[in-house]
Amino acid sequence: ETKPRIPVLWLHGLECTCCSESFIRSSHPLVSDVVLSMISLDYDDLIMAAAGHQAEAILDEIRQEHKGRYLLAVEGNPPLGQDGMSCIVAGRPFVEQLKEMAADCQAVVAWGSCASWGCVQAARPNPTTATPVDQVIRDKPVIKVPGCPPIAEVMTGVLTYMLTFDRIPPLDRQGRPLMFYGQRIHDKCYRRPHFDAGQYVESWDDEGARRGYCLYKMGCKGPTTYNACSTVRWNNGVSFPIQSGHGCIGCSEKDFWDKEGFYQH
Ligand code: SF4
Ligand code: SF4
Ligand code: F3S
């Protein structure tokens, strides 16, 4: 209670805002507790009341007053083609804002597949040269929290870890927190016994689908996707894509839009 809340600046590059949509639905911890008691969300141009010069002034203020201490949360990525003109924030290319604010932060949290890998805007032929955040910010730790979007409780869980232990979580070789991305969907999938028994859904709505058989032959990417959906699940732990009857499309994996296609394996 005596510890000052850590300032968080949440920037938005090329993205769809659904990572924010996911974040605000966190139930463990409640997002209201995160925003009101754990962090000081000083800038987020999606949800903040301030606008224009008043809003931009906050960035300079936090940067000067909390040099080396604030966290930079980034949703979306910078497009580097055409001098960055495909994403303009406050009248200049987003990449400039990103570099400027990253210069004095403690660490960068790259929310979602957009910030982590590039996602749909970086899919072939990537007309704007959308570029993952860690390829632009090279001198700060970049914690990747991929998913399109990431699970709400994974997002707030990463923040909670950092605030509780005052360090960044252990990461895998690609920069993802091991506690949420250390296993494949397939490793903990409740349909796994059907996979092991060779019981597959062969076409949509067949007898196997009704019996809840494995979705591998319908293109499920669970065997190659590292994420926490089969353990943490979505919507307050209610379900996840496979439980809803559709295979995993690998939305937290690098270049998932370009890899083979959702319905092939
Ligand atoms: Fe939207 Fe997906 Fe990008 Fe998140 S990762 S901003 S959900 S497109
Ligand atoms: Fe693996 Fe997908 Fe089958 Fe689940 S449904 S057991 S993740 S292949
Ligand atoms: Fe994405 Fe697969 Fe989870 S599609 S939401 S990683 S089950």
UniProtKB/TrEMBL annotation:
Q: Where [3Fe-4S] cluster is bound, by residue?
A: C229, C248, C251
Residues binding [4Fe-4S] cluster 1 are C16, C19, C114, C148
Cofactor(s) needed: [4Fe-4S] cluster; [3Fe-4S] cluster
Q: Name one GO molecular function term.
A: 3 iron, 4 sulfur cluster binding
Give the reaction(s) catalysed: H2 + A = AH2
Residues forming the Cytochrome-c3 hydrogenase C-terminal domain are 181-262
EC number(s): the record gives 1.12.99.6
* Residues of the NADH:ubiquinone oxidoreductase-like 20kDa subunit domain: 16-161
Q: Quick one: a GO biological-process term for this protein? A: anaerobic respiration
Ordered alphabetically, the record's keywords are: 3Fe-4S, 4Fe-4S, Cell membrane, Iron, Iron-sulfur, Membrane, Metal-binding, Oxidoreductase, Signal
The cellular component terms of Gene Ontology attached to this UniProt record, alphabetical and capped at eight, are:
[Ni-Fe] hydrogenase complex; ferredoxin hydrogenase complex; plasma membrane
Q: Does the keyword Phosphoprotein apply?
A: no
Name its cellular compartments.
Answer: Cell membrane
Q: Which residues hold [4Fe-4S] cluster 2?
A: H186, C189, C214, C220
Tell me where on the tree of life, at the top rank, the source sits. Bacteria
Q: How does it assemble?
A: Heterodimer of a large and a small subunit.
Membership in a protein family: Belongs to the [NiFe]/[NiFeSe] hydrogenase small subunit family.
How is this protein named in the record?
hydrogenase (acceptor)
Q: Which organism is it from?
A: Thioflavicoccus mobilis 8321
Q: What range of the intact protein is shown?
A: 47 to 311 of 366
